[in-house]
Amino acid sequence: MWDISTGFAVIAIIMLVGEIISSKTGGKLPQMFIVATLFLFGYWTFLPKDILTISGLSVVAEICKIFILIHVGSMFNVKSLIKDWRVVVTTLCAIVGILALVLTIGTVIFGKDMAIIAAAPLTGGGMAAMIMNEGAIAIGKSALGVVAFVIFIMQGFVGFPVTAFFLRKEGERLVEEIRNNPNLIKESSTKSEGEQATSKKKIYEYVPTKICTPTYYLTVMGVLGCLGLIIFKLLNGAIDRSIVMIIVGVAASQFGLIPPNPMNKSDSAGILNLALFASFMSGFADTTPASIGQMVIVVFGLLIIATVGILLFSIPVGKKFGYSTWMASAIGLNCFLGFPYNYNLTNEAVDVVAKTEEEKTYLTEQMLPKMIIGSVVAVTLVSCIVAGVLVKML
């Protein structure tokens, strides 16, 4: 019964169901939570344990990991991060808070290995979870690696409601401010956004349009991937492969060799993301209901510790930069969200609080850029680097 087409079709259906339910609930039930639940049910009933190998997606996922890390590096915009350095510092302090508390209190309560495996995904997204999972498998502790994915999947259940609360409070504060001083809206709209920098033409812009096909972008990422692996081998593994790939992506983007988001331009993001997300689920193949039950208790304990760390470290720093307690907290909590969830939650808060179009515009301008930058720093970049460092400590 099980062959490559059946395996692929079943996995694609599971991913689609997760996407639809997540969309219908406005992200309150994250796609990865639905997908993980369906995979767990499947593994415990009818799915073969090696369905990812049968479907051929495990091989695609290997290529995908390299491409996504280069893609992540390409999104690193040095100029915009320098401009929004206060947001960057606040986010980095939130990450320091997570690491400080999880690696101390978490170690005392749950043990050293559990604290280390949890710390990286708590600072950001799925790639950090994948790096830690691979590290755990490499040392024969695959059960520990599953914890990284459970954390990644469960983050939203703490992050969504808590961040929504802080964003709503910040919206209420800003609305009260502009109703007491209507000139703030005028000042904001009069602000000259017209500093359009005449930036030099990038190298990739000289490539003729007819050559810039999906095959071209796949080729460029493939060559950069090879370059990254050569550098990794020359370094004798002194720096984790994921960090090397991100650095290659950052360098290629800064020197103008590739545009931001090259994977999207390759028309392959859909299949590559499907393969990557599905590969997260391989760690669940050997779990039991009892082991998952124990894991969920540990994960919620670690999430609470990490949340306290975020608030303790981001609030005082954010307040020094002139942010309110609410805004500093929301920026720090980007570690549990990332795009597009932070985008949706910010818009939701604005819609609930603002009464006029002018108020909506003002609130969006004040809140949304900070949230997006925070997620770029935490989820997109720093979490992968943290994972690359911590995986060596397992």
TrEMBL record:
Family matches, as CDD domains: HDC_protein (cd21416)
Top-level lineage group: Bacteria
Keywords: Membrane, Transmembrane, Transmembrane helix
Keyword DNA-binding: no
Presence of the UniProt keyword tRNA-binding in the record: no
InterPro entries: HDC-like (IPR049576)
UniProt name for this protein: Na+/glutamate symporter
Transmembrane segments: 6-22, 29-46, 52-73, 85-109, 115-132, 144-167, 216-235, 242-258, 292-313, 325-343, 371-391
